[in-house]
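Section 5: illustrative case.
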């Protein structure tokens, strides 16, 4: 799947994460190295976070793993 698609697709995807089997009780980290794709996805991640999802986007796997390892609030 090409996540660097139009922001309309990214918006729709991130506003309906439950439809894709994601669970609000879990923490999610996306690792996206490509800057343009990360920029487009950051828009969707922001929308999901506004809806209460514990989700972040990272450039590197180590940063994502460190974030995932932090204690839950």
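Designed sequence:
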């Amino acid at each position: 799947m090409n996540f660097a698609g139009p922001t309309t697709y990214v918006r729709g995807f991130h506003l309906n994460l439950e439809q894709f089997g994601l669970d609000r009780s879990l923490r999610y980290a996306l690792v996206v190295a490509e800057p343009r794709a990360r920029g487009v996805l950051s828009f969707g991640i922001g929308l999901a976070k506004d809806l209460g999802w514990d989700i972040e986007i990272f450039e590197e796997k180590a940063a994502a793993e460190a974030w995932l390892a932090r204690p839950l609030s």
